[in-house]
Amino acid sequence: MFLMVSEAQGGISGTIPAARASSKAVPTRDLCVILGDQLSRRSPLLDQASRDEDVVWMAEAAEESTHVPSHKARIALFLSAMRHHAAWLKQRGWRVDYRRLDDPANRGSLGEELRDAIRRHRPRRVVLLEAGEWRVERRIESVCREESVELVWLDDPHFFASRQDFRQHARGRKQLRMEFFYREMRRRHGVLMEGRDPAGGKWNFDAENREPFSRTGPGLIPPPIAFPPDAITQEVIQLVEQAFPNNPGSLRHFDWPVTPEQAADALGDFIEHRLPFFGRFQDAMWTGEPVLYHSRLSAAMNLKLLEARGAVSAAEDAWRNGAAPLPAVEGFIRQILGWREYVRGVYWLWMPAYLGWNELDARAGLPGFYWTGETEMRCLREAVGQTLEYGYAHHIQRLMVTGLFALLAGVEPRQIHEWYLAIYVDAVEWVELPNVLGMSQFADGGRMASKPYAASGKYISRMSNYCRGCRYDPAQSVGENACPFTTLYWDFLMRNEEKLRRVPRMEMQLRNLVRISQPDRRAIRQQAERLIREVCS
């Protein structure tokens, strides 16, 4: 993620001056640190702070966009949202120390900027909410220890479950499964419940959801509300283009919400115009349609511009008021109250070891077309091209196109993890890493998800129009026109057959593998090896 610490000075519609270092240290009670993904105006950090005695500190650090080569839109989103938040704080009387990226005194490192702030302000304590990345949390701890200042971590109430809640849920369980955690969260928070029972008599409505579009496509879909860049965002866009000219991605279409007011408008727009059809078509894909019925709210939620509880309540109210069907509402709420909370718990339960897990011993390199979109595979050209243009792709494009190809080709998990962390505007490591290493790549051996999400090109053909006009045939596994997904699918099962036999939900797929003759196996293996050698070298 583009994690920064930052506050600002100046008006919300104007520019944010850089913090000025002072040769004379000013005693401070608490240095209240706000990271770039902690931009809630209802933070307990502010509740316990004093406008008179404390300083709110944030800093834009270049290393947070270069430790992975962040998409330009991702950098711009974090910077703009941070500067807007800092301006709001300043207007409300907070003492704000904000280090801009282009300040000549900026050291480029979050840790070194924090060290400088501690020495300038000489606080009694450094206080902040739990970080969204293990690396950042350890770095802050290290600096505070070296500077002999007390460090106080506060629980982040933005989430429905604390880290301790999840550890308690996981204690004594041989396997973790999102479904059981999700049901527990529904009961605890009274979401979509009718007494002690789930609304509609079922915990999920998968059977009613996940339809493809007809051959004529989705038709007219209301476009999501857009937020033209204001003065602060325009300044940020110019800075990003100058400071990171070689980073991937485009800023041509930047229209993301950067304030809580805009995030609330984006939520209302989704609830009214797209939620009613979200569940039914949440897994569908279509050429030239990057958003379809999806919400585009994850970025605002992950930066805490939008409260997760508010999004869940708004969706449930839409169902209870008759504005959206239960399957659509349940599918949307499950993404927030289920998967989002679950992956955060998994991340903090297993880090830092989680980052190095590679259960399937995948060693291939990440194909170069992930950074360019230049490939004859139309599905990947569409998904990657869209991602480079907007910094966005919906969850099935991520899981069953870009993630699926990496899984089948045996790409080393850390490489594909770093690509996802770099390339999506909503990427924060606590949510991105488990989704990629655990769910998409099965690198944790099933600790998080019950099976690898492995499929042939036929799945993509069924759920999209990507295969129409593509030179490859999803029904063929060998030959000049064989779909690489289909070739690699069967090769993936053969390569990992012994390990996958220990996964109960893979039994049916492995039974189909038995039907392939030895000559056909050899032909698939040879074509797969050639393909991997060509694209993953």
What does this structure look like?
It is a single chain. This protein is mainly α. The chain has three domains: 28-154, Rossmann fold; 163-221 and 274-350, Serine Threonine Protein Phosphatase 5, Tetratricopeptide repeat, CATH 1.25.40.80; 368-535, DNA Cyclobutane Dipyrimidine Photolyase, subunit A, domain 3, CATH 1.10.579. 46% of the residues lie in helices and 6% in strands. The chain has 22 helices and seven strands. The strands form two sheets. It has a five-stranded parallel beta sheet with strand order 3-2-1-4-5, sandwiched between helices. A two-stranded antiparallel ribbon has the order 6-7. Strand 6 and strand 7 (197-198) form a beta hairpin. Helix 4 (110-121) runs parallel beside helix 5 (134-146), helix 7 crosses helix 13 and helix 9 runs parallel beside helix 12 (308-320). Residues 1-25 have low confidence and may be disordered.
The profile of the biggest β sheet is:
5 strands, parallel
Total count of strands: 7
- CATH class (first level) name of the largest domain: Mainly Alpha
How far from one another are the termini? 27 Å
Report Rg: 24 Å
Total domain modules: 3
Shape: globular
Number of helices: 22
Within the CATH hierarchy, at the fold level, what is the topology of the largest domain? DNA Cyclobutane Dipyrimidine Photolyase, subunit A, domain 3
Mean of residue pLDDT values:
93
**Biggest sheet: strands side by side, in what order?**
3-2-1-4-5
Strand % is 5-15%
What is the second-level CATH architecture of the largest domain?
A: Orthogonal Bundle
Helix content, binned percent: 40-55%
- Class per helix and strand makeup: mainly alpha
The CATH superfamily of the largest domain appears as DNA Cyclobutane Dipyrimidine Photolyase, subunit A, domain 3
Low-confidence stretches: 1-25
The arrangement of helices and strands along the chain is EHEHHEHEHEHHEEHHHHHHHHHHHHHHH
